[in-house]
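User: What would this chain look like folded?
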Amino acid sequence: MGPGHCGRGTVWVNASFHKMMRSEAGKGLTLVSPTLIYALLLLAAPLAMIVLLSFWTQNFLTIERVATLSNYREALGDPLYRALMLRSLRISGTVTLVTVLLAFPVAYFISFHVRPDRKSLWLFLITIPFWTSYLIRVFLWRVILAYDGPVNGTLLGLGIIDEPLSWILYNANAVVITLAHAFAPFAILPIFVSLEKIDRSLLEAARDLGESRAMSFLRVTLPLAMPGVLAAVLIVFIPTVGDYVTPRLVGGSGGTMIANMIYAQIFDLNDRPMGATLAVMAMLIVAMVLLWGITRARLWLWLLDRAGGGPAGAALALAAAVVEILVIRLVFFQGPAWIGAGPSVIALLLAATLGSALILWRVPKGRWGI
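Assistant: Here's the prediction, encoded as C-alpha cells.
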C-alpha cells in the first residue's frame, strides 16, 4: 500500500468525520459529550472502583489487591448481613407503600379539585419541608416521637393511654414514619404530573356511559396514573433502602439497616473491601427486587384483565401473587438448610430474574402502562 493511498484514506476519514459532526446526530453528540464525560468521571468511575474494591481483601492496615470471592461468600453466608438486607427491604417497602398511599389523595385533590391558578401555590406549600436541612427534620421527628415528646404528652393528657408509647421511637416504626414524611413530596409530584396529563374528556365519556365515580376512577383514572405511581415507587424505594442518617438517629438497634453496616465496616472495622461488597450486593438486590416488582405487577394486572376484571380477575391475580410470595419466603428461610445460605440466595435471585425476563418477553404492556 503506497503513501498516496494512505493519504487519500486519511482525507476520506477526516471528511467523513467532519460530515458526521455537521449532521444532526453529530450536533447532538457534541451537546451531550460534556454531560456524558461528567457522568463517567463522577458516577461510573467511582462505581467501578467500588466494584473492583469488593474483590480485594483487607489485611489489617493494607489491602491485598488479589481478586477473590471471599467477601461475597462471607456476605451471602453470614445471617447478620442477610437479616439486615431483609430488614432494609422490608422497611423501605413499607415506607414506599405508606408514602404512595398518602401521596396519591393529595396529588389527586390538587389535580382535580384545586383551581388551575391555585395549583402552583399548593405545590409550593408541599416543598416547604425542603427549606430546612434533612438532618434537622430527622431530629425534629426524634423530639416529636420521644418518650416525653408531644405525641405521648398529648395522648396522656387526653387520657387515651396510661403510659407513654415505647414502640414509636428507636425501632423500625420510627424509621418508617420519618422516611415517609421526608419522601412525601417526591411521591406527590410525579403522581400529580401523571394525573395532569389525563384527558378529562375520557372521564366525561365514562360518566356518559353510566359508570359511577368510583368505577370511573378504577377503570380510567388509576390506570392512566400508574406511570406516575411507578415513578413515585422508584423515587422513594431506591434511596430509602440505602438511607443511613434516619436509622442511625431514630432507629435504634431494631431499626438498623444495611447502610449502617456498610458504614461500620468501612469506618469502624476498617474493612473497606467488605463495605464495598455489601454496597455492591445491596445495589444488585435492589435492582432485582424492583425488576421483580414491576414485572409481577404487569403479570398480575394482565391476569386481572384476562379474567375480565371484577372479583374473579382480582381473585386470580391475588392467588398468583400469594403463591409466588409464599414460595419465595419458603426458599429464603428454608434454603440455607437445604443447599446452604449463599447458594440459596443466588438461586432465588437468578430464578426471580429469569422469571422477570420471561414476563417482559411474553406478557405485553397493558392499559395500566406497566
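The radius of gyration is 26 Å. If you want, I can go into more detail on any region.
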